Amino acid sequence: MILGCKTKQVDKNQKQQAQEVVKKPNIIFILADDLGYGDVGFNGQDKIKTPNIDKLAANGMVFTNHYTGSSVCGPSRAVLMTGKHTGHSTVRGNPRWTASGTPVDINAEDVTVAEELKRAGYTTGIVGKWGLAENLTDGVPNKQGFDYFYGFNQHSPAHHYYPKTIFENETRLPLKGNDPKTKKGQHIHYLITEKATDFIDKNHKEPFFLYLSYTIPHFELTILEKEKEQYKNLGWPKRKMKPGHYRHDEDGHITYAAMVSTMDRDIGNLVEQLENLGVADNTLIVFTSDNGHEYDDLKNEFFNSNGDFQGHKRDLYEGGIHTPFVAYWPNKIKAGSTTNHISAFWDFLPTACELAGIQPSDKIDGVSYAPTLLGNEHQQKNHEYLYWEFNERRGPIQAVRKDNWKAVKFDKKPVELYDLNKDISEQNNIAEQHPEKAKELLYLINNSRTEHLEFPLIKKTLKK
């Protein structure tokens, strides 16, 4: 009898566990590359068509105060994956901007969101740009918790849309007929989309995490001619692009818009795929960008890619780190909702963990925004402050946001202070009018980082 009761209890527990697994949502994190806050329709874009991303916003939740991990690719993605801001993360700058000139990757000690979700029974995949394994050692995705990888381990190959090779897992595959200089062969965006589609097809019956890391619309600007048709003959001024390292198509405006709209269409197709597979209602889709835009000319703006913000890529003003963010989850996230909750890339790991029913296993800086997603704002924990550091070109630069206050500190210059509630464009430095607040945020700037031998906060020059 005792044995029988125990067996029944085990069966009951197994059944409960199976039900819990079913309830775990699939998670798709879609990351655009160098897309500005104002490059999408739901944030006011009136030239570039993004109907599918806008539909996610209309039927999901828009975050108006979401920030990236950094104002350039590498450190931003490291922050996203590890839940640690740039004062604590392993990668704090792009590959060439280290003290030694040797690239720094995330390492074996780093715990990624993929590794966390593996503990919760997820199948994990990344398709597109990884950019955290320049040395092709411990930083490669398959050693960082991903079951499947198709894309770019390193930065430079990802600069081109017709690369000669691509990685699938840890194998470098030749792309026959591809030539990045002449732009012949297969445009990588379409292959990335195809592999993402395949991953979902193969893994949708169990909980999965897909990190869909597009390279659009990063320089170089090039896309198939058929994608440009909708933007031709609109009377737009021509911005002639000069090919160099980046093998740009000639007309920048048309090409940039067509690239973004191509990505938008493929995101729409992905949503349709989820619906056809019957898993849309159990799938959280997040869409955002890794940092601010690079293309739009701030002196002669055409797309107004940064909206009302100052600066763009490589700035710690809002234009460099404040990016579009929408979360879509049918029947879980209230359609057409907006939140002013202040969040950042380092919050994704704890959010994913909470939704998967686990706790982060490493010390992190992130705060889960799952309560906000699910309409439980009264349970939402808030950051005391957000911190960034960046050390290229005009660096070192540091920044802090605390409530409505934002401080920006350039090397050996007085701290700048802005009230974002009144001055989202950061035009009026009010540090002298509010010396105590400036002092408070300067303290946070000076005490929010650990030392890193490869990323000291001293003026840097590129190693040749």
Automatic annotation (TrEMBL):
Keyword terms: Calcium, Hydrolase, Metal-binding
SUPFAM superfamilies registered for this protein in UniProt: Alkaline phosphatase-like (SSF53649)
Pfam families documented for this protein: Sulfatase
Domain Sulfatase N-terminal: 25-358
Coiled coil segments of this chain: none
InterPro entries (UniProt xref): Alkaline_phosphatase_core_sf, Sulfatase, Sulfatase_CS, Sulfatase_N
Similarity comment: family membership: Belongs to the sulfatase family.
Protein name from the UniProt record: Arylsulfatase
Source organism: Tamlana crocina
